[in-house]
Design brief:
It is built from 7 helices and 8 strands, in the order H-E-E-E-H-E-H-E-H-H-E-H-E-E-H. It is an alpha/beta fold and 243 residues long. It has 2 domains: 3-105 and 161-239, Rossmann fold (3-Layer(aba) Sandwich); 108-154. The longest helix is centred in the last third of the chain and has 29 residues, at 211-239. The chain is globular and about 65 Å long. The two termini are 39 Å apart. Belongs to the universal ribosomal protein uS2 family.
């Protein structure tokens, strides 16, 4: 990374507040290598370590995207929901931003059957068939649809298991990490000072509570996915013989 580019990234990271960790009383000692200082009982994360983690994660995700594999974005805390949905959709990848359903990965066949049911409910509610049901049944179908849509809508494009999970707050998303580990799925996570970095394959040390830092993290990783797709498209163009 050139000096000008490096300084620009550092400025961007600092302005987002990504270097602010949790109170020192809440820290996980395994995060010590990523901590720069302590100020007013708050741990300050070493931005140089954040950049290293971010660059490693971006390089890896670009390779995953070039290989045509899926990346599942996961962040169910309130601060992460909008960023997770926006950036996953921008790079054409599935996401979960409401609730992690047990078995999302380890019982994927059941999840696919629920998605089929979601599509069935949409056809019923949007078509002429709805009038055949009683008012009570219509209300019941609408409730079922709203609940399923909230929990499953982001998974519609996940027609196979992902290669990687991109996670905001691995401590909160411990069930997702557990399922990923059991299936050998790589994890990339924005990892705050209260987390265990050993549980993550590619940790990116940073503030996982601030909206701006979460936005920056998800944006950079979505950009990496798009870079991979762009590289594939360019290779495809180069392979087409001139007429």
């Amino acid at each position: 990374m050139k000096d000008g580019s490096a300084n620009s990234v550092i400025k961007e990271l600092v302005e987002s507040g990504i270097h602010y960790g949790h109170r020192t009383s809440r820290w996980n000692p395994k995060m010590a290598p990523y901590i720069y200082a302590k100020k007013n009982q708050i741990h300050i994360i070493d931005v140089r370590e954040t950049i290293r983690g971010l660059l490693r994660a971006k390089k890896y995700l670009t390779q995953v995207s070039e290989g045509g594999s899926l990346v599942l974005f996961v962040g169910t805390k309130r601060q992460a929901g909008a960023s997770i949905e926006r950036e996953a959709e921008r790079c054409g990848m599935p996401f979960i931003n409401e609730r992690w359903l047990g078995g999302t990965l380890t019982n994927f066949r059941t999840i696919r059957s629920r998605l089929t049911r979601l599509e069935e409910l949409e056809r019923i509610l949007e078509g002429d068939e709805l009038s055949k049901y009683s008012k009570k049944m219509q209300s019941s179908l609408a409730r079922e649809y709203r609940k399923m849509y909230r929990n499953l809508n982001g998974l519609r494009t996940m027609n196979r298991l992902p290669e990687t999970l991109v996670i905001v707050d691995p401590k909160k998303e411990k069930n997702a990490i557990r399922e990923a580990h059991s299936l050998g799925i790589t994890t990339v996570a924005l990892t705050d000072t209260d987390c265990d970095p050993d549980e993550i394959d590619l940790p990116v040390p940073g503030n996982d509570d601030g909206i701006r830092s979460i936005e920056l993290f998800t944006k950079h990783l979505a950009d990496a996915v798009l870079d991979g797709k762009h590289n594939v498209a360019m290779k495809g163009k180069d392979a087409v013989p001139a007429s």
